[in-house]
Amino acid sequence: MAEEQEKLVKTSVYLEEEVLEALEETALELEKETGRRWSKGAVIRVALSDFFTRRGRMI
Predict the structure, then answer these.
(1) Model pTM greater than 0.85?
(2) Which residue ranges make up each domain of the chain?
């Protein structure tokens, strides 16, 4: 069964250095847990999805 691919739009954001480090650390943790490569962008997308879900918005 093929996974559905969402269309991604390139964007830029400014983040504190500590946030960037946390994204890199989290990506490595998720790689160890799942056995799949995680990018910082993927971690951001998961975090934003959780944020919006908690606010009652399904995206």
Answers:
(1) no
(2) 30-59
Tokens for 55, please give them: 């606010």
Spell out the residues 6+ positions from residue 40 whose beta carbon is closer than 8 angstroms to its own: 20, 23, 24, 27
Span 10-42, pLDDT tens digits: 999 999 999 999 999 999 999 999 999 999 999
Give me the half-sphere count of Cα atoms (radius 13 Å) on the Cβ side of residue 59.
Answer: 12
Distance from the first to the final alpha carbon of the chain: 22
Q: Under the phi-then-psi rule, with left for phi > 0, alpha for psi from -120 to 50, and beta for the rest, what region is 35? A: left
CB atoms within 10 A of CB 27: 17
